[in-house]
């Protein structure tokens, strides 16, 4: 499903290149649950953003279902991202001007899901995450934990083939965190590929394998 060949990410001025990722080679099969770990600044979020097509590598090749992502136009990348990828950001990235209901509805509008099915899916998701009472509130009226729940709900509502989660339980208390990890585990058992960045050994253990990054390199 995902193949990274010699991926590098760096920022350069005229004199020096500052590397964030170095010579990353990685294959992830459809249906895997992969955890990425490493200290702060090791390149975890950058790698997730490249896989999620939100950032481009400086060098190297990225294939998604054998399609060369590194050669695609911005428009094609955007379409691929909207159709196949659900992203759970560390900072939520909810749309401030939209209610909880409208935030959940947005990915379905991108996919042109018909009105009745859209309403049904939003209602089902509100119920599943126990946030029905919050549906008419705006993000700034929610606690951090509630915003995180909405962000996760939004990532999975469109039934993406791939879910990318950056510290998915970072702002939740332990019971909520366990609940979210169990939801991700269940989605994975149903065939969704999941890649999570985490500092938590407990959360990492949900993955089939753990990839460790250090100073932009994958540790062997």
Structure in words:
The protein starts with a strand and ends with a strand. The protein has a single domain (2-218), classed as Rossmann fold (3-Layer(aba) Sandwich). It has 220 residues and is an alpha/beta fold. Strand 7 (162-166), helix 6 (174-189) and strand 8 form a beta-alpha-beta unit. It has helices at residues 44-51, 74-84, 100-110, 115-128, 144-157, 174-189, 201-204; strands at 2-12, 17-28, 33-37, 59-64, 67-68, 85-88, 162-166, 193-197, 209-214, 217-218. It is globular and about 55 Å long. The protein is built from seven helices and ten strands. A six-stranded mixed β-sheet has the order 6-7-8-3-9-10, sandwiched between helices. It has a four-stranded antiparallel β-sheet with strand order 2-1-4-5, covered by helices on one side.
